[in-house]
Amino acid sequence: MSRLAGRYDEDDVRVRPNRRGSRPRSKDRPAHEEAVPGFVTAVDRGRWTVLVEAAGKGRNAQPERTVTAMRARELGRKGIVVGDHVGLVGDTSGSPDALARIVRVEPRRSVLRRTADDTDAVERVIVANADQMVIVSALANPEPRPRLIDRCLVAAYDADLDPLLVLTKADLVDPADFLANYAPLEVPYVVTSSDDDFSLGLDELRDRLTDRISVLVGHSGVGKSTLVNALVPGTDRATGDVNDVTGRGRHTSTSAVALPLANGGWVIDTPGVRSFGLAHVDPDRIIENFPDLSPGTANCPRGCTHDEEECALDAWVEGGHAGPAGPSRLASLRRLLASRTEGREEHRREER
User: Fold this and answer.
1) Do 62 and 56 form a contact (C-beta atoms < 8 A)?
2) Which helix (H) or strand (E) segment is 259 a member of?
3) Considering 63, 255, 264, 270, which has the largest number of Cβ atoms within 10 A of its Cβ?
4) Number of other CB atoms surrounding residue 107 within 10 Å
5) What is the pTM of this model?
6) Are residues 326 and 299 in the same domain?
7) Do 179 and 325 reside in the same domain of the chain?
8) Nearest to 185 by CA among 290, 270, 274
9) Does any domain span residue 233?
10) Do 97 and 61 fall into the same domain?
11) Per-residue pLDDT tens for 280-326?
12) Buried b (16+ CB within 10 A) or exposed e, 323-346
């Protein structure tokens, strides 16, 4: 036995720790105080196009530039969409081979969402920080889809976006009858022609878009991309024809893109939609946009859907509290509420 054996016990043995995982991972993340602010204008297969404004003076001055960026690992799966204001680190020079990292997404002023259908709990963010939704619909070729328009209005009200209805191809069909359905909602509108230069209504539309961030929505074939090409010359957004058999347009825009307007503001072109799920929308958010009717819900029974016999809105309107337009306004409100629930009822019928 060694002469040292009696001098030490197991407490004196120093065990070498396992290096992997020996230090707890810090929950603190870098502040990235030096991050350069930018505005996301496009998303494509894991790469974001970000506009960085001019900054600095003298030798350190950097011009306005477009930067390609990836999402930093620390953001995890956090969604980044067109319209987001972000913080960038890395190579923000904007050179062809440069790649920056998005390390921060600033708080959003507004979020436009939709779900795949009215039973889907997963919300899909379309754009961030817009302040106006431009709902584009053709009056003919393809035929207008009032139900989709109603759903877009509901989504606009839920996101606190100002709605604007733009009707194209007014030289083919008189828009008066169609607009009469939306008069009680007091939705502003612009009527345009079907020619390539939009000789009718284009100047008025430009005025309504100036200094605002506007997102264009509508189903395929209604002329969204043609409008964008007229508003932002040189954009060359792809346009498509309407199928003579189905009456539907062909998808031409495959992703959202933000484009600057000459007089200030941005227009965001989005892919054509054929459905607009509203599973995420709270009915109270819709009613808030009817200030002449919302006080009348105070006496509604608990859980009132506002289309039942006990609904207090009928008495409110009959008492003249909503003004002479009350009956038509109430009918429009109930039409919008119905547009939210129709999809769910159809799904239940299919399950049976």
Assistant:
1) yes
2) strand 257-260
3) 270
4) 7
5) 0.80
6) yes
7) no
8) 290
9) yes
10) yes
11) 888 888 898 899 999 999 999 998 989 888 999 999 999 999 999 89
12) eeebebbbebbebbbebbeebeee
